[in-house]
Amino acid sequence: MWINSDRLFCNxxxxxxxxxxxxxxxxxxxxxxxxEFKALxxxxxxxxxxxxxxxxxxxxxxxIVGHINGNVTLSVYAHEFKEATxxxxxxMSDLLNxxxxxxxxxxx
Length: 108
What we know:
5 helices
C-alpha cells in the first residue's frame, strides 16, 4: 500500500519519515564504518567531487545523485570540473615534458 508523497526520504511504504532520521542513520553508519562524519549535504558534495576527480562521466554522476540531467550537475559543480580539467592539463604537460626530455637524452 504505497503512499504517494513529494518527500525525498520516506519509509518502505512511501510515508514521510522524521526529518532527523536520514541524518541519524548516516551518523551511525559513519561511526560503525569508522569514516569521517559529514552532514548529508557535505557527504553528497564530497561524493560528487570525488567522482568528478576520478573521471566519472557527467551523465553517470547526474544519475547517481538524482539530478534531472547532466547540465544541472555541470552548473552546480562547474568549479570542480574546472579543477579536474586543470589537473588533467597539468598531467598532459608533465607527460609531454617527460617525453621531450627522453627524446633529448636519446639524441645526445
